[in-house]
Amino acid sequence: MRLFILTFLNGITLAALYFIVASGFSLVFGLMRNVNLAHGSLYLLGGYIGYEIADSTGSWVLAVVAGFVSMALAGVLLQLLVFRYMEGQELRQTLVTIALSIILADVMLAIWSGVSYQFTPPQWLYGATPMPFINAYPTYRLFTLASAIVIGLALWFFLNRTRIGIMIRAGVDDRGMLSASGVNVQLLFCVTFAIGAGLAGLAGVLGGSALSIAPGEDTRFLLASLIVVIVGGMGSIPGAAIGALLIGMTEQFGLAYFPTYGVVFSFLVMVAVLAVRPQGILGRA
Question: Any idea which UniProt keywords this protein has (predicted)?
Answer without folding.
Answer: Amino-acid transport, Cell membrane, Membrane, Transmembrane, Transmembrane helix, Transport
